[in-house]
Amino acid sequence: MISRPRRLVCTILFLLAAVVSARAAELPSTVAKGARLVEVFSSAAFHEGPTWDPVTGKLYFTAFFGGDPANQQIIRLDGPGKGTVWLDKSEGVNGTWL
Questions:
Q1: Domain extents for the chain?
Q2: Sign of dihedral through CA atoms 6, 10, 11, 12?
Q3: Are 57 and 47 in contact (CB under 8 A)?
Q4: Are 71 and 88 in contact, with CB atoms under 8 Å apart?
Q5: What is the pTM of this model?
Q6: CA distances from residue 11 to 16, 19, 20 in whole angstroms, order as listed
Q7: Distance from CA of residue 27 to its chain's centroid?
Q8: β-strand 58-64 against 46-53: which pairing, if any?
Q9: Average pLDDT over every residue of 13-34
Q10: What backbone torsions phi and psi does residue 13 show, to the nearest 5 degrees?
């Protein structure tokens, strides 16, 4: 059995390690200085595979609803918080690519 002071020291060390690891990671050089993350779209689906179309200036990504392949979509981001279903029932599409 671990003594109370030793348990306290272990707990403090664990919490310190957690705080240090939670610090913001350094951003790669491809990210502009002063850039910050902002939420641009949210829904109940799981989203992945974002692809930027430089011609149209639109972002496309896949949406998964409940793990059912028949309920997959490709969404086009038309503005902050505004997503449009670009392809419904994409059945098996996992991510996007140009």
A1: 40-88
A2: positive
A3: no
A4: no
A5: 0.60
A6: 9, 12, 14
A7: 16
A8: antiparallel
A9: 73
A10: -65, -40
Helices (H), 1-98: 4-22
Please give the C-alpha separations between residue 73 and each of 44, 65, 79, in angstroms, as whole numbers.
Answer: 13, 9, 18
Amino acid identity of 16? L
Percentage helix, strand, coil for the chain under 3-state DSSP, each rounded to 5: 20, 30, 45
Tokens of 14: 């664990």
For residue 28, the model assigns a pLDDT of 82
- Counting beta carbons within 10 angstroms of the beta carbon of residue 76, is it exposed (0 to 12), middle (13 to 18) or buried (19 or more)? middle
Q: What tokens appear for 80 in the block? A: 């902050």
Measured CA to CA in angstroms, residue 75 lies from 23, 52, 70 at distances of 32, 12, 15
> What pLDDT does residue 54 have?
92
For residue 51, count other CB atoms closer than 10 A to its CB: 14
Residue 95 CA: distances (Å) to CA of 9, 19, 90? 46, 33, 11
Q: Which pair of structure tokens corresponds to residue 24?
A: 């913001």
User: Which burial class, exposed, middle or buried, applies to 59 when counting CB atoms under 10 A from its CB (0-12, 13-18, 19+)?
Assistant: middle
